[in-house]
Amino acid sequence: MRAPEPEQHGEDNNDEDWLVIDAKAAPRQREEPHFEVWHENWDAWQTFLACGTQWVAGLQGATGLNYPALESVMRMRGIPPEQQPEIFEKVRLIETGVLKAFAKQRAQEQAKQKAQPRS
């Protein structure tokens, strides 16, 4: 995307002159993977997503979710207290899968770094 030079801006210019979009330079939309969430797991999935900023991190990256925050999120989302233990366990399963994916990604990045020639 390019904007016209400042001297080109004037009262005679229409809106189309203000912004020129170069189709070749436009970023390509990344296709997000499609997946389904079973109905019985929907509350756990939505709770996990609501905890997106509640990761505890160490030197090697995320180590897990902040469980007191998870409890607060369940309460704020209106999950009945009798359902919270089940939702908590489901969120922990999601968390475990994400942590494994993070570890795999970290290992791949480290392998790439080791494979690069040093100057």
Can you describe this structure?
It is built from 4 helices and 2 strands; from the N terminus they run ααββαα. By secondary structure, the chain is mainly alpha-helical. The radius of gyration is 23 Å and the shape is elongated. The model is unreliable at 1-6 and 17-21 (pLDDT under 50).
The SS-based structural class is: mainly alpha
| Major sheet summary line | 2 strands, antiparallel
As a whole number of angstroms, the C-alpha radius of gyration is: 23 Å
Tally the helices.
Answer: 4
What are the defining features of this structure?
disordered N terminus, mainly alpha, elongated, 119 residues, two-stranded antiparallel ribbon
In short:
With 119 residues, the chain is mainly alpha-helical. Helices cover 46% and strands 8% of the residues. It has a domain at 40-115.
